[in-house]
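User: quick one - fold this with iron/sulfur cluster bound?
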Amino acid sequence: MAVTKKNLVSGQATYYIRTFGCQMNEHDSERMAGMLEQEGYARASTPDDASVVLFNTCCIRENADQRLYGNLGHLKSVKDSRPELRIVVGGCLAQKDKELIQRRAPYVDVVLGTHNLASLPRLLRESHEEPSFEILEQTEVFPSALPTRRFSPWHAWVSISIGCNNSCTFCIVPAVRGKEISRRTGDIASEVEGLVGDGVIEVTLLGQNVNSYGRDLDGSPLFAKLLRALDGINGLERIRFTSPHPKDFKADTVAAMAECERVCEHIHLPLQSGSDSCLRRMKRAYTRAKFLDKVDMVRAAIPDVAITTDIIVGFPGETEAEFEDTLSLVAQARFDQAYTFQYSARPMTAAAEMPGHLPKEIVQERFERLVALQDEISAERNERMVGRVEEVVVEGPSKRDPSQKNGRTRTNKLVIFTAEDVPEGSRRSVRVTGAGTHHLKGELVSRPPLRLPVLQAPTRA
Ligand code: SAH
Ligand code: SF4
Ligand code: F3S
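Assistant: Sure. Structure tokens for the protein plus iron/sulfur cluster:
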């Protein structure tokens, strides 16, 4: 066991991780957990008496920054009474704020950025002498070999690329995650095969722009081929991915989605704005008409596909007419769900320097109009499901009523249904009996869901 001296006041050293931000961070947290477990730490379910507390941070919007410093302030008082506690800050905000974290919170023991996760055990050991700090400017090779402690027995995040080569003017991600690096297809397939061997039935492929996957490997995007390769893995039931960029989302991916049985009937296609002039200022490289064409293309190829999106309200200079273009696109596209954000100026982004930042009241008022419209559409999309029998994977007891279970359809809709004794990660058939804005209600039916065909031949080269 590599855990040393001071953190072991009594018994086993433990760690607690709090993750902010997106799925990439969730997955990075699993890798940090994997490395710590390899070092002899055990996972703690609360921060209260953990030897190490890690914050894996996000900086996509300003309130993410404020939350971190608020949480650190709280931990300071814990550390005052328990000085052996080690506090680690990693992730995108650490990458952005660098030395500032230790200046604002000098009691933090370790700061590491997004490009050097693997240094965590070493930095933690060094921090017994004095606070340790390490931020690199770029990942050199894809970090595939890190040990991972999965937080779910049946679902796994699988990183296919890291970083982003786009320059959307509102977005800080390229500045904190670096340039795009794709992982080799064979490595991804081997990992997925290993995961299936461990009992995983669903994987979510992760990349900031999955449709440009492979461009840095052989000059052309390979995402559709990757989907087809993974679709041949016996025992895998569901393949999800996030996110495609609309500019790179093309017919080859749609065809792969339609033809691969394991690929779920859901796509998250981030819109950001329905106005051509706004999209131009955002440097999104598509128009309203092109975006709508992609929506039509997916719907034509995959009946009943669910489409979700991200939208930013109040981008600098957004006029009432531009905002109304977003409303009209939303009315036309009929997304199943939209994650709506109020624009937040970020350092190291072009939009932060643009004129026309809008007052909070205008942004709030537009935001509420957009949410009201989308809520109506989400409810209507869910209502269409009532009466159907859907395959769900059981996620666990419902938070509100533990006698009910939560599950997800292949279209990624949350279904709350009455059932006893259905284990987490099992597949069941559920009849949809009711619909709300953000969930479906259902009841178990006795007929089990169909299994996917087992392929006889070796499935990949
Ligand atoms: N790579 C993903 C986006 C990752 S960030 C993609 O291109 O789809 C997730 C979402 O956060 C974005 O889609 C955007 O809607 C939102 N977002 C990013 N920067 C923002 C900002 N400065 N203010 C408000 N929302 C922002
Ligand atoms: Fe940010 Fe755009 Fe890259 Fe997405 S594609 S991470 S929004 S720069
Ligand atoms: Fe994700 Fe937030 Fe970083 S959205 S990539 S954790 S800035």
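One thing worth noting: The pocket of FE3-S4 cluster (ligand 3) is lined by residues 21-22, 24-25, 58-60, 92, 173, 176-177 (CB under 6 Å).
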